[in-house]
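ligand=S-adenosylmethionine
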Amino acid sequence: MRVTVLTLFPDAFPGPLGVSLLGRALENDVFTLRIIDLKQFSQEGERVDGSPCGGGCGMLLSARTLEAAIASLPPPDPSFARQCIYFSPRGALFSQKTAHFFSQQHDIVILCGRYEGIDTRILEEYAFTEISIGDYVLMGGEIAAMAFIEASVRLIPGVVSTHDSLIEDSFVASSASLLEYPQYTHPVRWRKRSVPPVLLSGDHEAVRQWRLAQARMITRTRRPDLWSKYVASKLNAT
Ligand code: SAM
């Protein structure tokens, strides 16, 4: 996977993408990260940003700066579709399903907004897909880009060694998944709190049943929206 990030703050990268399993994947070229500094592309005598036409607060990254940065990219390899993503609170909500889709892509270009955003014409001209990482507003797209890259790259086969751990995660690709059950490690007793005895029983079926019951209870109480999808999928399966 080749990931290109267009940002005003190149020093933010690789940041957490350079440590642990993602760092190893980066070192081993499982994915590559090309960081483009938007400040290099301000047009002569112009700023990278401009005030919004029609008035309003803040500044927008200008179409001419972004156009020059995009034009500097090598042309896409004809065998792979280039995916262009702009992070924005008004985009489609990022999910595990979306991460699965992007984990199978080879050429991803990410544009990180700043200030009040960017000139919309760029999104139209280059067919950017708008993605949001949640219903809140960040200062810029860099942290959203990192969350997106980490969630997508960890699904590339081999990045996380135990495949089962991906299958058991909360939010597997299916929209009808349960949240994860509680997990414990040693010591068995800590601050008067004990590991549930069933987890020490060695009875794999009893452990599976307990975990399923816990996952169902947690999903039902914390995320009624996911619970409804789960119940509907079970009804459809019968
Ligand atoms: N004026 C914009 C709005 O109301 O939608 C918010 C701009 S925000 C301060 C600056 C940049 O941060 C955005 O252009 C976007 O790239 C990024 N950003 C902020 N919140 C985000 C979110 N929830 N998901 C993805 N990107 C976000």
